[in-house]
Structures are given as C-alpha cells and as structure tokens.
Design goal:
The structure is a single chain. This protein is an alpha/beta fold and 124 residues long. The protein has a single domain, classed as Response regulator (Rossmann fold, 3-Layer(aba) Sandwich), CATH 3.40.50.2300. The chain has five helices and four strands, in the order βαβαβαβαα. It has a four-stranded parallel sheet, sandwiched between helices. The longest helix has 15 residues. The protein is globular, with a radius of gyration of 13 Å. It starts with a strand and ends with a helix. 28% of the residues are buried. The model has no long low-confidence stretch (mean pLDDT 96).
Length: 124
C-alpha cells in the first residue's frame, strides 16, 4: 500500500506540530501544508491528496476555513476530496458536514480513540 498524503491548511506552528505528531504516530502519512485558499487549491490540483485538514480559522489571516471547504466542494474536479475541519466546536463540525466535509477532529481530542477512528475511516 502506498503512503497516504494529508494536506494541513491554516494551522499555527504549535497546532501543526501536534497534528503532525498525531498523523505520523497513528498513520505514517506524508504531510503537506498550505496557509491560504489559493495555495490549497494549487496543491489539490497538482497532486493526489487523501485527506485535507482545514483549520476553522486560518492562522495567517484568521479567515474562515469554511471558505476553502466550499471552494473545494464547488470545484467538480476536487469535490470528491475528503475534507475535515479542525475545530473543537460542535457547531463548526456540523456546519462543515452540511457543506460536504467528513465530521472532523478537534485539537483538544488528538489523543482520543474517536479522533483516530474518524481519520482512519478516511485514510483506510
């Protein structure tokens, strides 16, 4: 089986480090990063990505991660890409699912079995 690729979008350095550790420890994936919508779309159009993890609020400018989610889901070539919003807030998770995302993970739950199970369901 080939190594899976995860694109992490809009995380601050400490959160990126925590997510990277979580992903490496449990899934052994290659991790790419993007800060802004245009960079995210460029990466998704240029290579296969198995899961996109978008921060609820992008660290670089505090814009809405949901805007990237909608842009990806509105693009017929990218719409099937699995996306999760990274947020501890239930309302953000529900809004993301309503917009086409897979129920995501919160930074506060990275040590939980539930978070591992949700990511594993996408990456397996």
């Amino acid at each position: 089986m080939s190594q899976k690729t995860v694109l992490s979008v809009g995380q601050c350095a400490p959160d990126h480090a925590a997510l990277s550790q979580f992903l490496a420890q449990h899934f052994g994936v290659q991790i790419l990063t993007a800060d802004l919508p245009a960079e995210t779309l460029e990466i998704l159009r240029s290579r296969t990505v198995d899961l996109v993890l978008i921060n609820r609020k992008l660290d670089v400018d505090y814009s809405e991660g949901m805007d990237i989610l909608r842009a990806v889901k509105d693009d017929p070539e990218l719409a099937s890409t699995p996306i999760m919003i990274v947020s501890n807030f239930e309302d953000a998770q529900q809004a993301a699912v309503a917009a086409g995302a897979v129920y995501g993970i919160g930074k506060a739950e990275l040590t939980s079995q539930a978070a591992r199970d949700r990511v594993a369901a996408v990456l397996s």
